[in-house]
Amino acid sequence: MKIRVRILSKHIVRVFCLICLHLVMPVTSDLGASPLPAELRIDYADYNQLSLVLKKLGWLEKEFEADKLPVRWVFSGGSNLALKNLRDNSVDFGSSSGLSAVWSKANGNPLRTVYMFSRSEWAMLLVPRDSRINSVPDLKGEKIAATPGTDPFFFLLRALHEAGLQKSDVVIVPLQHVKGGIALNREQVDAWAGCDPYCASSQLEKGNRVIYRNPRFNSYGFLNTSERFAASYPEVVSRVVKVYEMVRRWAIRHPDELELIYADESRISLPVAQLVMSRVDMSKSITGISELKSLKDAAHVLSDANLVKKETDMNKVIDELVDPGFIPGK
Hints:
Blueprint: H1 2-24, E1 40-44, H2 49-57, H3 59-63, E2 71-75, H4 79-87, E3 93-97, H5 98-106, E4 111-120, E5 123-127, E6 143-146, H6 151-162, E7 171-174, H7 177-185, E8 191-195, H8 198-206, E9 209-212, E10 220-226, H9 227-232, H10 234-253, H11 255-266, H12 270-277, E11 280-281, H13 289-298, H14 300-304, H15 314-321
Parallel strand pairs: 1-2, 6-7, 6-8
Antiparallel strand pairs: 3-10, 4-10, 4-11, 5-8, 5-9
């Protein structure tokens, strides 16, 4: 009799637990669909023009309006901050340069790149207008402002390597993009590895000189999410990518409106916005073999500068990072 009571009691407890679990589980309209997050947290950045257009036009809000899913916009002041926010679970989507995402992934940030928003020449080396520095070899022994973990920082390392210099041959002053430009204007540093739109503004409005450009050393604009978010909410990821693709196509058809929105949202002059956009290529949204090859060719700079562990297989990191499967038609 005691055995039966004990078995019955266990059965009652199990049923009660199942009922409680059912009550706290999120309800979806489709048994096969993933639940929705409490809100959609996505970044916008001055180096990601499509994010500024999306924020202005409200297309993401419209996409998830019927789901009652609120969208919260979070500003990213650089790839390093966007990737840190993803690591800290402060955002669900963050914009970065391709090489920055590779570096972050190689150092343990569980990222997934789901979209390529642009191929931009956004990094270059600038000096004050009256500087005696005219080339990369002239930078030996000089102070250079750069933002660690961003494309301009990696651009600087590659430029130094090409000129036969090492990181130890210069003094890198770690400053966020905006502060780096200010430091150059005040001549607190001798050079600046900068990022648009701040470089364009520095050129047109401050008269600072570009001493080195190399489009090959600029990596792609990546839209990243976390592996956890991609696994938990694949439908949400697909819908965000779909809207990004819609706005990319809109931007190609409306270049003048794109420049106006970019200038207004970034609080820069229209001439600065136009100069920036002359350096931006939005013709592709799919990261293919050629893009992956250029990333793999560039990844050596991370190993050479001891920014990743020596034993890291960079090709494997890149293959595991980029996932074009969320792009419509893939």
